[in-house]
Amino acid sequence: MTDRCVTHATFTLERLYPAPAARVFAEWADPKAKARWFSTPDADHELDFRVGGREVNRSRPDSGPSLTFEALYRDIVPDERIVYTSVLYAGDALATASLTTVEFCPADGGTRLVLTEQGTFLDGREESSWREIGTGDWLDALGAELGAGGYG
């Protein structure tokens, strides 16, 4: 018998980027641009950025099971907001299901990005702290892509 558990967690991350909201938003909307900061060179990344569109990122780490991230875009307001639901599989096992909101807010000389994720973490396959660290890492990679280094 397998031990089953469910953990619920919410986190919010903020980054300041010295680029206009339209530029930051475009990094999420363009498949090639998003693959540069969100994915890894050895992963398969697909992006259909529209309401009802899907994003998939499949990676194969050197150790451990393959990881598959799948998102469905629920709401997109250009240059202002993105809302998506997502799941993460470790191998064939569902690890996480979540709702994420990304807001693009004008700030002095650029954009303040606010990302809030509400997650359900299943059976110890992923922990909320791991997700928060990983999400922060790719927001920092977005900052590097924008030439900002992402801070905040």
Automatic annotation (TrEMBL):
Residues 19-146 form the Activator of Hsp90 ATPase homologue 1/2-like C-terminal domain. InterPro entries: ASHA1/2-like_C, START-like_dom_sf. Pfam families: AHSA1 (PF08327). Belongs to the AHA1 family. This is Polyketide cyclase. It comes from Streptomyces uncialis.
